[in-house]
Amino acid sequence: MAVTIRDAGPADAEAIANLLTQLGYSADPGRVPARLERLAIVGDRVVVAEADGKVAGLAHLQVTPTIEHDRPVAKIGALVVEESRRGTGVGRALVDALEGEARGRGCGVLFLTTAERRDDAHLFYERVGFAHTGRRYSRTLSQ
Questions:
Q1: 59: exposed, middle or buried (C-beta count within 10 Å: 0-12, 13-18, 19+)?
Q2: Average pLDDT across the chain, whole number
Q3: Which H/E stretch holds residue 6?
Q4: Domains annotated on the chain, with CATH
């Protein structure tokens, strides 16, 4: 199976919403194009993986300068593969594409966060070369 990585666009809204729902974030397809536009404005990159002519995965890269490092850091903000395509190389292709983008943008670190409950994802991240280095804490902010 050949996997093609390309930039996500408004025509992918339905597939992106479905993938975000599989990741645990409900998403209205009608709001996806505005999200993509917002992310592009700040320099983020959102890509989709296509396999057999259908969107099979999604990944989002954020590049940020930090006080802790001389070079910018890159965060994978979202990474999800269609349930029926997991274990077929789609996730690895997405990670490889984002790593290439991060290197091309001069980043010194590529990292991601993941929920404690996602044991299958943790195993995948370790298989593709990520190390477990810490914890994430969060707080939901009201408007």
A1: buried
A2: 94
A3: strand 3-7
A4: 3-127 (3.40.630.30)
